[in-house]
Every structure is written in C-alpha cells, then in structure tokens.
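Hey, quick one: can you model this chain's 3D structure?
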Amino acid sequence: MGEPKMKLRLAITAALLLAASLAHAQYVWKDNKGIRHYSDRAPPPDVPTKDIIQAPNLSALDLQLPDAPAQPQAQAAAKAQPAPKGPPTLAEREMDFRKRQEERAEQEKKDALEAQNAKARQEQCDAARAAKQQYDSGARLGKVNAFGEREFMNDIERAKNAVRAAEIVAGCR
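Sure thing. Here's the predicted structure for all 173 residues.
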C-alpha cells in the first residue's frame, strides 16, 4: 500500500518541478564589455538584438545570431511587418483612463453650458412674446425717462418696439 502512494507522490513532484522550470523565462545576453548576463527579466533596451543570446518566444527573424550570416531579405521582411503589440501595460491603461475621464469632464462642461444658453434663450423668447402681446394689445404703455418721470409711448415708439419684439419672436423656435 505504501509503495503506490510513494510512486504517485514522486510522479506529482516530478510533474510540478518540470512545470516550474518551464514557467521561468530565461534571458541570456552580453553587455558591451562582453560579460554574459542571465536573468528572468528582459535585457535593458540599450542592448542590441544581436547581443541577446537566449530569450523566450523570440522568433528567428528578431534574433540575429553572431555565427549566422545576416540575410537582407529576412531583415527587410521583419522591418516590413509591424511587431505584434501585446496587451496594454498598467501605465497605458491608466493613461487611457485619465484621458477618458478628462474627455467626459469636458463633455459635461460643454453640455452644462449649452443647457444654460438654451435656458437663457428661452427666457429671452418668453419676454419678447410677452412684450409683443402688450404692443399688439393697443393699451397705452408707459415708460420711465432719464429723470425718473413716467411718460407714455407714442405710436412711432410703439411700432418700433413691436417690430423689434416680432423679430426676436421670429428667431425663437
């Protein structure tokens, strides 16, 4: 009974060790002094591609080995095809989020300003309609002059004001 359990544990341990070794990405590159570096992180961006000896998921077109002659056709094909872009990084996603947030805030400001302008236009139209009704009613209308005295409008002033009010009402929807 103990022997099958031992074999099962051994098999599971071997599978886990094999999976763990496959999970670690290994990079090998030479720096400008010729020293080899081994890491699970990508080399710095200033390391030329020809100095990268080993990298996970690195295609043959991207990797130019020192003992293999350079092929101009392969290089031209590699330059012609854009490199596939991976998922966006956290910084890119944060930048996109902030951009959308700013655009939304600008749109809300614009909508609020439009609503305020529409309300002001509506109030102006309502006032012009009321004034037009007064001018069309035929009743005597008074006004206050510069000295604070009340005067009545004559027919010419009334007609001018009625035409102006009619123009404003015509411009209203």
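One thing worth noting: The longest strand covers residues 27-30.
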